């Protein structure tokens, strides 16, 4: 656990949720005071952060991060991945279960949980596997993981779909006992055998095996009905098609307890990018069409889609810098998520900063059942888990200059709006002046460099 903060901060002229300017005092790990500029009492020892015009949000919470440890420390570690999360404005992440060994026992989830605590950059909440070894045959020890020190509430075979309807039904029934949720990676395996990219005009033209929208939509349709049948809670990972949005909208209208996420990349990138066969754009689910991008933006704006989750999927260069068909699926996202949401939803007038707080902090905390500590309002007495963003800044994205240990950002060479200038975890600055605050002066990226 991180030591209690000894530094007191005063954030000058910040805009909570993008509204009126205030000064905010952080002391003893909580928000100690909020008031009109110049009116709050500031302890003499306070460190002043000039932040006029910067937007203050509750610390971001990611429901879908791949930290790769244990097993693929050449791609990312809990340390490097959570350091990247802090750089991106996050104060909590849910660490996906497809590690080696799989996070399918109390022992492994506790290991990841402890590594997160030792690193100290963000709160790490391990996701438990639904089935043993993600094998899709036998339920993992969900109860033992829920009861462990890691207090697992989100269960997912992400990377693989729980395609057996009987297993899915049992998992949905099982997690009710501890208010858990099954987060489904919706991909009908038979319909996606050998699939490389979205099935459509582009796949036909460039000759890559297509991945039809119905392979995602059929699983989501089945699962919302299963969730309704057993009266359980379902979460749909990274939905990517217009049809999926329609199914979720229908299910919510019917009162089914389902939530859904979209990734930043599905909010902006399309399958047109596959034309040059650059595997940095190879991802699961695949990039879809402009019509799908518009549908997920509309779904996010109207609340059909509850959250934005990064699906941060780091890969070492040898797994991405090869021909398309043999490259790994996935892209990094922790350090660009907020900028992409600003660009696609805020700067276009479709969402306010309060909406951003809802989809990147409050709702993911609620779905992950961590609202005791995260996704809290920006208010006096609340834990000082906060993100400060300069919305007027722009920055050029380059993989090599990112904090994550991997370079596979699809936004390399692009300019994105917005910059995280500070992140606070219980009042302690993990990012200040736009730079991660290294307590021990360990540069994770340069350490990783030796193995790349
Ligand atoms: Zn997935």
UniProtKB/TrEMBL annotation:
Cofactor dependency: Zn(2+)
InterPro entries: DHOase, DHOase/Allantoinase_Hydrolase, DHOase_cat, Dihydroorotase_CS, Metal-dep_hydrolase_composite, Metal_Hydrolase
Residues where Zn(2+) 2 binds: 158, 185, 238
Signal peptide positions on this chain: none
Pathways per UniProt: Pyrimidine metabolism; UMP biosynthesis via de novo pathway; (S)-dihydroorotate from bicarbonate: step 3/3
General function of this protein: Catalyzes the reversible cyclization of carbamoyl aspartate to dihydroorotate.
Protein name: Dihydroorotase
The species this protein was found in: Promicromonospora umidemergens
């Amino acid at each position: 656990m991180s030591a209690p903060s000894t530094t007191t901060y005063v954030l000058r002229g910040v805009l909570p949720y993008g509204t009126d300017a205030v000064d905010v005092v952080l002391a003893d790990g909580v928000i100690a005071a909020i008031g009109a500029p110049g009116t709050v009492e500031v302890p003499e020892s306070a460190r002043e952060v000039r932040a006029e015009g910067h937007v203050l949000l509750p610390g971001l919470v990611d429901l879908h991060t791949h930290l790769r440890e244990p097993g693929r420390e050449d791609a990312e570690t809990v340390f490097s991945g959570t350091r990247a999360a802090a750089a991106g404005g996050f104060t909590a992440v849910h660490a996906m279960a497809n590690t080696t060994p799989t996070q399918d026992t109390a022992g492994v989830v506790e290991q990841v949980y402890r590594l997160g605590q030792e690193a100290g950059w963000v709160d790490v909440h391990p996701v438990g596997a639904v089935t043993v070894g993600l094998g899709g045959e036998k339920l993992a020890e969900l109860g033992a993981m829920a009861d462990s020190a890691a207090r697992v509430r989100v269960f997912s075979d992400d990377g693989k779909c729980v395609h057996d309807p009987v297993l899915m039904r049992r998992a949905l029934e099982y997690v009710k006992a501890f208010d858990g949720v099954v987060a489904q990676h919706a991909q009908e395996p038979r319909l996606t055998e050998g699939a490389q990219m979205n099935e459509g005009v582009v796949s036909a033209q460039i000759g890559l095996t297509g991945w039809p929208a119905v392979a995602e939509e059929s699983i989501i349709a089945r699962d919302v009905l299963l969730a309704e049948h057993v009266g359980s809670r379902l979460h749909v990972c990274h939905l990517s098609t217009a049809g999926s949005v329609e199914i979720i909208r229908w299910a919510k209208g019917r009162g089914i307890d389902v939530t859904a996420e979209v990734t930043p990349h599905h909010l902006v990138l399309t399958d047109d990018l596959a034309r040059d066969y650059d595997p940095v754009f190879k991802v699961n689910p695949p990039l879809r069409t402009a019509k799908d991008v518009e549908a997920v933006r509309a779904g996010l704006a109207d609340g059909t889609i509850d959250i934005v989750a990064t699906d941060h999927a780091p890969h070492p260069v040898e797994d991405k810098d090869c021909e398309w068909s043999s490259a790994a699926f996935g892209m990094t996202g922790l350090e660009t998520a907020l900028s992409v949401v600003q660009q696609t939803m805020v700067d276009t007038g479709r969402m306010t900063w309060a909406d951003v707080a809802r989809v990147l902090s409050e709702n993911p905390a609620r779905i992950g059942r961590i609202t005791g500590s995260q996704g809290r309002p920006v208010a006096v007495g609340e834990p000082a888990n906060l993100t400060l963003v300069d919305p007027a800044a722009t920055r050029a994205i380059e993989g090599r200059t990112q904090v994550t240990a991997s370079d596979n950002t699809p936004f390399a060479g692009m300019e994105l709006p917005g910059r995280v200038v500070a992140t606070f975890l219980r009042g302690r600055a993990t990012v200040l002046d736009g730079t991660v605050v290294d307590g021990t002066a360990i540069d994770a990226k340069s350490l990783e460099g030796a193995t790349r």
